[in-house]
Amino acid sequence: MAKHLICCWIWALVALFYFEQALSFNLDISKPTVFAGPPGSYFGFSVDFFNPDNKQLNILVGAPRANTSDQTPSTVTERGAVFNCPWHKSGSCTQIEFDNDRKNSNGQQMEFKSNQWFGATVRSSGDHILACAPLYQWSTYGLSEREPVGTCYLKKGNNIVEYSPCRSSIMYENMFLCLLQKNRVVIGGPGSFYWQGQLISDDITEVISRYNKEFFTPYGNQLSTKSAGAQYDDSYLGKPVCIFCFVNIFNGKNMESMYNFTGTQVSITKVFVRHCDVKMDLLVGAPLFMDRGSDGKLREVGQVYVYLCKGGFTFNNVIKLTGSEIYARYGSSICSLGDLNMDGYNDLIVGVFGADKAVLYRARPVISVNTTLDISPQILNPEDKSCTLPGTTTTVSCFTVKYCLKANGKGAPPSLHFQVYLTLDRLKHKGAIKRVLFLHNKMSHYSKNMTVSNSQGPACEELQAYLIDDSEFRDKITPISVFMEYSLNYKAAADKTGLLPILDQSTPTNVTKQAHILLDCGEDNICKPDLKLSVVSDQKEIYIGDDNPLTLEVTAENGGEGAYEADLTVTLPSQADFIGVVRNSETLSRLSCAFKKENQTRVVVCDLGNPMKGGTKIIAGLRFSVHQLSEQDTEVKFGLQIQRHDLHCVFICSILCRVSAPEQVFLPIANWQPKENPVLEDDIGPLVQHIYELRNTGPSTFSKAILDVQWPYRFNNGSLLYITKFEVDGNMNCSSNRELNPLNVTVSEGRNRHSVHRRDLEDKQEEENLEILDCGNAECQEIKCWVGRLEKGQSAILFIYSRLAVSTFLKVKTIHLTDIASLKVIWNSENPQPVPGWVVALAVLAGLLLLALLIFVMYKLGFFKRVRPPQDDSIEKEQLQPQENGDRNTEA
């Protein structure tokens, strides 16, 4: 006999079962079958299944405190019983008759069966049933002495034999454990050898053939463990173990100990192999589990945990089976009943001896469904109109939707009925325009009842759908999603007992495929535009009380591929209102614009085309009324950006806003005189503050950008704008190619806004001899900023504080300074780069080195050495030899 794990359980139980992959999730926990026994009998203390042939499917339930139904008068109380319950019925359990009372030739009582707990252990194998009474007592000399040797009964068909190997010795065995493995029976006696414990194994055929009611007959093929040293006393070998006990694995050929474990006991009952992969589920019984009832009070109801196996010893998706009766010890015994109804899945029974019940959880047949969904073609050309709408002469661009279902399930009916649902353009939510419809019903959804033959070929259907006219919708970028979902008609697939199947939880019940509209974007159908935006105002200065409208001339260009759903968005300041588009000019485009209000923000949205084709240049004029100015206003700021729908996020919409405070400085300054050696900032000239804000308006997030500012600082050996310092706000770091504040003047703290005072209009002199200074005719200082990650809506701001060198500007009448700020967003291609060869080689070498190190450590620890029994210590080892009970080990 191969290796046997000698162990069982009573209270806190952990059972490890090897099941089919789909065991646990398909347990029918909503409608379990409940078997009930005599009240107070501990019905359900032990459970097992009995399947002698394919025609009989029964469940064995032990009731160790039941009173027997013997016809002969007896003074035995609570003899214990074993019940046979058909799995497909409830409440029809019958007691199995095993034995009657026995007396010797003088009429004296030889055995004492009251409270013997017969049925505390029940096991079956094929057509054999083994039931044990661990508290059975035997008397060789009548009532004067009693020996708690325990006994078992082996039943095969109508033949019943008693098996009590400990009766011939004077060891107090208490046979707690009994197992049937192939052609042998294994029992445990924890009381042998001063409670060291003992295991005994005999051949089943010999137990039946050599049975004699009158006297004990030794068995020739008996295997047993022997006595060990005194240090092993109180080891309780053979006792049912639960927590913090000693568990041994013995060799079934010679009963020598091979492995020893300390901790929670496990029991392996069955192994099923599927696709060369052993799937294992873990069941844990907690009979003392307490749960709160509806009144909030704790109740001891018990619980069983079912852990689904992911592979190896990794579990997830725990299923909890909770008892309903208090103090019922739900989960005190658990048994995998195997495939009782031959549907390919193992059933489960849980003992509830505190309520004298046993609960059977049927395994629902698992149906695996394979679905396919195809769209042809996947690129829809709006110009290819090869179909005609039914009942009309209108031609449309169409495509084919084909779906198939294939199902198989052991234990399921030959025909399975499914409800199939199809939805077109599913990404468009309810209320939005559906861009594609089914040709036969002009709707975006379709359903059908489909019948699929079990374990046969697939059932398929092909439908025609069409693209509506592109003038009816605007979105041409978003994929056209075709969604298919199916559901099983469970009632039609139920078996004769009403057990419903279940769909395989590892397979989704829906599938999605996508098609795309052909775009003017090259062979890859991915648009990469190059959008540019510039704006010019017809007024450089706005005066309080001036009612003249402000006109912004906007130029939008696309130097790349087509930009779909391109919009010009203008964010209005609080001082301005939108009047309309300039339409009395032949050079300006007449855009279609609309005023909107989004979250207290007023915006004007203008359509630039769908698509805005490559090479397009649009110039338009937008008129605004600025009539709410106050003396505190120093600027009127409009935000302009081009937004477009871009599925692939190739183009990042960002805007760089610049402002100078003040925009103009009028010289000379009253009551101010220049100093040759300035000490304070004011000694150089008035403050000129420049603010550069980089704002990401989405929809994408960029992780790297460079802001480059070219700052004119020197002209004809004289300073222009003397930079004292700069500050940043946001994820940005900046540096300068020249020293800041070389004169080391005292710099004030804080970002103080410079106020611009009103001047009388009549004092303003006409600008003459205007000279523009930029980096072409003046020396520039470069400030370069590296911008980090900016998500949609985030910004980074650069503050540059400078002083206008008055002494230089007094030499000329009028100077116009221009600084140049440029922004470059660095786009990192998402194309995967090949792994360098040296990385692969290094990884292989590291793996081989780790493997060699692991083998060396295991070799040093003796992992590869075969465990052999010691040859020189006759006290510690356990020899395999025929035993004549009572002849040896008289010390016990």
TrEMBL record:
Boundaries of every Integrin alpha first immunoglubulin-like domain copy: 363-520
Domain Integrin alpha second immunoglobulin-like as annotated: residue spans: 521-643
GO biological process: angiogenesis; cell adhesion mediated by integrin; cell-cell adhesion; cell-matrix adhesion; integrin-mediated signaling pathway
FG-GAP repeat copies, ranges: 29-94, 103-164, 316-378
Sequence intervals crossing the membrane: 838-859
Main location: membrane
Keywords: Calcium, Cell adhesion, Disulfide bond, Glycoprotein, Integrin, Membrane, Metal-binding, Receptor, Signal, Transmembrane, Transmembrane helix
Any GO MF annotation of the entry: integrin binding
Subcellular localization(s) per the UniProt record: Membrane
Signal peptide residues on this chain, from the entry's feature table: 1-24
GO cellular component: external side of plasma membrane; integrin complex
SUPFAM superfamilies: Integrin alpha N-terminal domain, Integrin domains
Region named Disordered: 870-892
Chain ranges of the Integrin alpha third immunoglobulin-like domain: 659-825
Presence of the UniProt keyword Transmembrane in the record: yes
UniProt record similarity statement: Belongs to the integrin alpha chain family.
Protein name listed in UniProt: Integrin alpha-V-like
Organism field: Sinocyclocheilus anshuiensis
Gene: itgav
